[in-house]
Description:
By secondary structure, this protein is of the alpha/beta class.
Amino acid sequence: MLAGRRAIVTGASRGIGLAISKGLAELGASITLLARDSDAMYDNVKNLARQEYQEHKFVTYNLLDLAHGKEPENHSFLLEALNESSILVNCAGTTTNTLLARAPERSIIDTIDTNLVAPIILSKLAIKPFTKIGKSQKSKPVIVNVSSVLSFTGFSSPGTTVYAASKAGLLGFTKSLANELRGSIRINSVLPALVKETDMGKKAPAGNSFPVIQMKDAVDNAIELVTDESLNGQDIGS
């Protein structure tokens, strides 16, 4: 289904990002993993489904550098990956896990920069190469942003105020950019509930009322947003 296409997935060293990478690889896409942990990605690349036409690789990159306007030595590898790709999944995310009154200002800024500013800048960098590659392939390029049900529902969990704000911003950005690009690139959001298998899921306070889903459900929703050509400016919650 995705043979001949390359996908960049951020936050792909573990958790939802890695699971989405595996799902896209199983559908035939070549994958570029992007995260800070090069050792984890080195192992992850070897464990992705692979046919003879698939070439998987990884780029070690700190998205806070991107959000802060820095261009580290490996920035050229990021640009090269974008030039080769027609799928971008913005999945990297972090949370303070601290009540707002106690949250250090630096952790607030880093959460917003990782969850919102970095995906915005990555999407900006993707527009030109995605538009170009979209003219030479049948399927439209697509960006999928991993937001959260916290972005628009009444569910809450102590210590997630900044996280919720960043994910709400990402949802608004998705819908606005979809309108701005007028279908030349599809832009969608997946809004998973709490996934217990992730680091954030394991740290969630016991006894909270936050809805829980399986990793497979979050991955299936993300893949639907990638593969269903009729979906643009849409969000799928879990």
